[in-house]
Structure formats: structure tokens, C-alpha cells
Amino acid sequence: MARESVKARERKRQALVDKFAEKRAELKAAGDYAALDKLPRNASPVRLHNRCQLSGRPKGYMRQFGLCRNMFRDMALAGKIPGVRKASW
Hints:
There is one protein chain. The protein has a two-stranded antiparallel ribbon. The chain is mostly helical. The radius of gyration is 18 Å and the shape is elongated. A hairpin with a 4-residue loop joins strand 1 (61-62) and strand 2. The protein has helices spanning 4-30, 33-37, 69-77; strands at residues 61-62, 67-68. The chain has three helices and two strands, in the order ααββα.
């Protein structure tokens, strides 16, 4: 599991991206790159990293579910993800 500080940092970045999204779009459309430069660096969506919502794990992330492969497997086997069953043939 990721440290709580790492998960908190990622949540903080996400909040900044959401806060400045509209302003960034306006400045980009206007071509005002000098003003874009003055926005906080963490307001850029490029600086976000996909992390598991439960464990905070950065690798093995499944975008469709927002979980890492480990948490996905545990939840799927416990029947907590609708429509997901273990394959058998």
C-alpha cells in the first residue's frame, strides 16, 4: 500500500487540476502562454498519475475500474464488482 502522504498529494493535485481546468482552457484557446506559465505547476493534468482508489498503488492500474490488479482480483472473487466473474471453460 502507498503511504497516506502520497495518496494525499495525488488528491491535492487532482483538486488543483479541477480548480484551474476552465481557466487553462480559456488561456490555451486565447494562446496566452505567458499567463499559462504563471498557473501552478500542479494545475496541469499531465502531472497526475493514475492510482488505485483503495490501496494507492501506481502500477497495474485498470482504468475501467479505477483499481490496481490486486484489489480488482480480491473484489472480483468476493463478488463486489457487478458483472465480473472468474472465467472457466
